[in-house]
Write a structure and sequence with these properties.
Elements lengths: L6 E2 L2 E2 H16 L14 H10 L5 H19 L1
Antiparallel strand pairs: 1-2
Helix pairs in contact: 2-3
């Protein structure tokens, strides 16, 4: 095998870095998997989850729900 300080295992050293960066980029980049849907929760969904888990009372739930529904009506008009 030819070795003169610029070649390593048949490739220039720079190509090893290119391949390494390319492989790391493929596996380290967060991306959505095709076919999966990422559900974005609405403020009302979050409120319902908080109420179901017992973080807020019924009175707080109704008050905040009323505010959210009013905001939705204003922005929808």
């Amino acid at each position: 095998m030819f070795y003169d300080g610029y070649h390593f295992w048949g490739m220039h050293l720079i190509w090893w870095f290119v391949w390494l960066i390319f492989i790391l980029w493929i596996f380290a980049t967060p991306y959505a998997i095709p076919g999966q849907r990422w559900k974005k929760y609405s403020p009302l969904d979050i409120l319902q989850q908080r109420f179901a888990s017992g973080q807020i009372t019924t009175a707080e739930y109704n008050e905040k729900k009323k505010i959210l529904e009013e905001d939705l009506k204003k922005s929808g008009s």
